[in-house]
Amino acid sequence: MVNELRDRLMKPALLWGAAPSNSHCATDSYFGRVDLAAPGDSWPYWEGTPLKPLLQLRLPAELPYRPQALNDVGVLVLFCHPDVLPGDEPNNTCWCLRAYPPGAKLTSLREPGEKSDYVPLTLPFLTEDYPAHQDVKEELPEEFSPKPGLKLGGWPCLVHSEIFWAPFNKHPAKPQYVFQVDSIPEIGWWWGDRGCAYVGRGTAPGFKKEWFLSWQCL
User: Fold this and answer.
1) DSSP 72-127
2) Is the pLDDT of residue 23 over 70?
3) Which residues does 90 contact at the CB level (< 8 Å), separation at least 6?
4) CA distance 139 to 211
5) Which residues have a Cβ under 8 Å from the Cβ of 65 and sit 6 or more positions away?
6) Cβ 164 vs Cβ 87: under 8 Å
7) What residues have CB less than 8 Å from 36, skipping those under 6 apart?
8) Strand, coil or helix: what is 153?
9) What tens digit of pLDDT does each residue of 140-193 get?
10) Which domain holds residue 48?
């Protein structure tokens, strides 16, 4: 029974963690810092407020695993408003995700005002991941559960229900989950009360370059 569930439900995932203070692992991946942009990309603002840098991920070709939805992405950066969490707002409003292709010539991006606290990330490691029961509508052994943290691929670590992409889970873009960003205590960032955010990419024709964000909390 357990082996059958493992064969049927396991998905690979990459997990990152905060690097220790004495780490010399230069991955150019960070919690709380974004310093790369395409020429012409400026720091994102929303209603006059500069967005907070949440994440910069460099995704080299030699990653041990890469979700198919990220085959055309070499660097991914994510910003969010420091005081307003996304509701149904699209990308480039109170949150902003930019995905740059492998080999893109990127320039330095300077954060306006006082720099945010940031933490370098460790090199990612490959792990087996399993769903929450909400995603498969069946009871699962305790050892079968999605891993929390900063994760590419695998299954989303749900706080409540399965992800409902607004409106009413009938979004014309038909987003599919790609990665999650948990609350990040190392930089003082929380998605509500110990929540987690899920980022999806459109799969419907005309939306395959569009990104979508949903989050849940206690």
Assistant:
1) T-SEEEEEE-SS---SSPPTTSSEEEEEE-TT---EE-PPSSSPPP-EEBPPPEEE
2) no
3) 210, 212
4) 31
5) 12, 13, 14, 126, 152, 153
6) no
7) 28, 56, 75, 77, 100, 106, 107, 108, 109
8) strand
9) 888 889 999 999 999 999 998 999 898 788 899 999 999 999 999 999 999 999
10) 2-216
What average pLDDT does the segment 68-82 reach? Answer: 97
20, amino acid identity: P
Dihedral angle computed from the Cα positions of residues 174, 212, 160 and 118, in that order, rounded to the nearest 10 degrees: 150
The pLDDT value given to residue 5: 87
Which positions ≥6 away from 49 have C-beta within 8 Å? 81, 82, 83
Number of domain units in the chain: 1
pLDDT for 2 equals 84
- Beta-bridge partners for 213: 199
What is the structure's pLDDT at 88? 84
**CA separation for the pair 12, 133 (Å, rounded):** 18
Q: Is the Cα dihedral 93, 97, 100, 106 positive or negative?
A: positive
CATH assignment at residue 6: 2.30.320.10
| Single-letter amino acid, residue 95 | W
pTM: 0.95
Separation CA 78–CA 99 (nearest Å): 9
Determine what percent of the chain is predicted with pLDDT higher than 70.
Answer: 98
**pLDDT per position as a tens digit, 114-155:** 888 999 999 999 999 999 999 998 888 888 899 999 999 999
Dig out the tokens for 175 from the structure: 């987003």
> From the centroid of its chain, how far is CA 185?
16
